């Protein structure tokens, strides 16, 4: 079973008993998505020989945080996107109020899943919860900055900081959780953090580029929506070609970071390659 | 220093470093509020002789969850209330998008504050986080049920279940966290849970009654707003007098629950009395 099947099965199991919110949660979480964050957690943990049964809760938790953020980002008051994963966004299907509450409930559930995993020691769970709560906070703050700079001219460092919070923090956290389960040494852990930071930023710049280049049916959401909303993006600031060069450089650096690890990095190298060549 | 001063100082300290969300968070959290939930946590912990320095994080966490829920509840898509604590609601002051994100960030921050309290063992923190994440989830679910039954005729048991989730879960959690810090025995813990359940429901029925009876300037929000929104409430279902009898009975039961405790319950009795006689 590959990581995607594994996370989908775990999410399906977790999302079965949420009362009046179950339907909207299942609709929004199980409809698809690349599952890149949990795959990252699994791949890091697997690379260091962890028991994957102990990784399921953190993989689910990070994906549930991601899913909640998409539901809230799509709201009319936020990015106002009607389509997500090739289906009506949560608020189009269930109404705005239920979409807000579905996101709120998913955030609580993410932390609950992690806090309740008796397979992990309390110390490991606390370390992971510290990482995930901080990342979830930064993500909200990044989105807040993003909405604050619409139609404004900002420099590339401000954009980078915003991207780091909005997308990078949760990606880095996905890597960190894989490292925390594996109990890897300090040197490996540090190399992984550099790796995480580089792919986190690369991923978001690439998202900006794909938003411009990819047709709606492949993207699963509206094409060129950033520009239409006057959002500052890498392509808008640096141009399309320079943005491509930028994210390819970051992926290269990320692959270099992996070479510093004391273990076989084949799976992480392959994942990085797969990310770099993604089309949506 | 009384508990209200203590929690206000703690919240003031916690809310100082949230980047672009700091201002909206301080505006919404520090503007007032009865602080009943953290006071409950302090009072329970104090009753069992806990060191109050170890109670600050859970007291803050429970109040931050409460504060986030008020911000989201007030949104136009939800209860659409413009006034909260005698000032414009968060979304009126900062816009809907920032209000959503302020709530989202406060939820993450609540769990982070608790997860990061090094004065507490990892085991105690995990027990508390399990309780608080579950309560936060139930609160969102309760609000989801509430919005789903607007203008519908429901029976008193459905209303009770909804109130238990919407308000009771977090109140019970506030008591539970006080008990968890104090490491009180199983018998005391059970009596406290009965106490918590009774005041949780009493508090919400009383809220329904006060919503009808209390003028806006005392309530700090719009009077009679439940009825205007066709929300099912105890007064609507049972009548005003029967609702009063109901919540007074529940407070009486709560005081009886306290008599089963093995410690001096003077502070908890006084708090229950104070709650029962509140005007808003």
UniProtKB/TrEMBL annotation, chains A, B:
Q: What is its EC number?
A: 2.5.1.10
Q: What class of enzyme is it?
A: transferase
- Entry's Gene Ontology molecular function annotations: (2E,6E)-farnesyl diphosphate synthase activity; metal ion binding
Q: Which residues form a coiled coil?
A: 237-271
Biological process annotations from GO? phospholipid biosynthetic process; terpenoid biosynthetic process
Q: What cofactors are annotated for this protein? A: Mg(2+)
Q: Which UniProt keywords apply?
A: Coiled coil, Isoprene biosynthesis, Magnesium, Metal-binding, Transferase
| Example of a GO cellular component annotation carried by this entry | cytoplasm
NCBIfam families documented for this protein = FPPsyn (NF045485)
Protein name, as recorded:
(2E,6E)-farnesyl diphosphate synthase (EC)
Q: Which organism is it from?
A: Bathymodiolus thermophilus thioautotrophic gill symbiont
